[in-house]
Amino acid sequence: MPDPILPEVRLLQPGDRCRLCRCGRSERLPDCPSDCPDGLSLTARREQRLLLCRCGQSKRLPWCDGSHSPPTPRLGQRWRRFWKGE
Question: Which Gene Ontology cellular component annotation is one that this UniProt entry carries (predicted)?
């Protein structure tokens, strides 16, 4: 079974710039090529952490919404997935 494609946590410092994919067609998710008209350009005003989609399934691109994982019916399973990657 192939390894799951997990989201990327990216730390931005004030003044950092990035261009993020919103269409899901980029070969280098979550980054977007400069010639794509749908890219989201960000400039950080403060230190912040972004949770970015790398699987392309999110309905809120470029942000991860958890679509890469099947739903878990119980809270304990969610915590195990979060802390242990199960």
Answer: cytoplasm
